[in-house]
Amino acid sequence: MRLEKKLSLLRNIASDLQIIHSQNLINTDLHSGNILLNDLNHAYIADLGFSIPDNLTSTLKSDGILGILPYIDPEVLNGKSYTKKSDIYSFGIIMWEILYGKQVYSNDKSESQLQLLQFQIRFDGWHPHIPEDVTPPCYVDLMKKCWSREPEKRPSAEEICNIFTQWQNDKNILLELSKYNKKIRSQSSNDPKKHSDNMHTSKIIKQIMGEPNVNKQLDKIGSDDDFILPL
């Protein structure tokens, strides 16, 4: 899939998210499994069953947080309230998946692996690896803003829509993006891995207290556990 088409899909998703936020709602469970394509290849957000009003302050249930770990805002994992910026964090993960055609992480992992990933997200600033030599700098910059550890620095859904619209209408940016098409496709084709059906199963994430020494495990989780998306 060409980068121009991927930008169109992402703008569709950001536009849907903007509509959700304009109704003073937060999705809280935004992930690529909730993104559907219609017959015209227009992407949209499905399954709003876990959406909550943006003034709801209680987030952590007695038994944990319902969601898929890689998409959950570190602020929420640390016990803070869901905000619209939490959805933006999730959107940043989707940006990575759509660009590289891979799932960011499999949910079908042992409890100890998931605990390590939770600690990395909360304390070590974990995010998917970005091969910057094959990634457009403007795209890298936007992803990193969505993942910012400071939620107030993340863009709004409206701002993201405007950025994608600007890119789609700027011939110089489109030309720059086109240079990366072959690089990204080559990078993805050289890393064939199976798709995991368990990836998109939301589950209760129990908040783990304390901070263990996980430095030796950093290279085990993330880079070797990606899965190809059917894009």
Characterization of the model:
This protein has 231 residues and is mostly helical. The protein has a single domain, classed as Transferase(Phosphotransferase) domain 1 (Transferase(Phosphotransferase), domain 1). It is 40% helix and 9% strand. Strand 2 and strand 3 form a beta hairpin. The strands form 4 sheets. Strands 1-4 form a two-stranded antiparallel ribbon. Strands 2-3 form a two-stranded antiparallel sheet. The C terminus is likely disordered. It is globular. It is built from 8 helices and 8 strands. The longest helix has 20 residues. The relative contact order is 0.19. Keywords: ATP-binding, Kinase, Nucleotide-binding, Transferase. This is Kinase-like domain-containing protein. One of its GO terms (molecular function) is protein serine/threonine kinase activity.
Layout of strands and helices, then pairs:
Layout: H1 3-22, E1 25-26, E2 35-37, E3 43-45, E4 52-53, E5 65-67, H2 74-77, H3 84-100, E6 102-103, H4 111-123, H5 137-146, H6 157-168, H7 171-178, H8 181-189, E7 203-205, E8 227-228
Antiparallel strand pairs: 1-4, 2-3, 5-7, 6-8
Helix pairs in contact: 1-3, 1-6, 3-5
Structural category is: mainly alpha
**Major pleated sheet:** 2 strands, antiparallel
**Which architecture per CATH?**
Orthogonal Bundle
Structural Rg: 17 Å
Please, how many domains?
Answer: 1
Q: Indicate the mean pLDDT.
A: 79
Helix count, per DSSP? 8
Helix content: 40-55%
Beta percentage is 5-15%
Distance between the termini: 7 Å
As residue ranges, the low-confidence spans are: 194-198, 212-231
Give the overall shape. globular
Give the CATH topology. Transferase(Phosphotransferase), domain 1
CATH superfamily: Transferase(Phosphotransferase) domain 1
Class in CATH?
Mainly Alpha
* Strand arrangement, major sheet: 1-4
Per DSSP E runs of 2 or more residues, the count of β-strands stands at 8
Order of helices and strands: HEEEEEHHEHHHHHEE
Pfam family, one: PK_Tyr_Ser-Thr
Protein name: Kinase-like domain-containing protein
GO molecular function: ATP binding; protein serine/threonine kinase activity
Keywords: ATP-binding, Kinase, Nucleotide-binding, Transferase
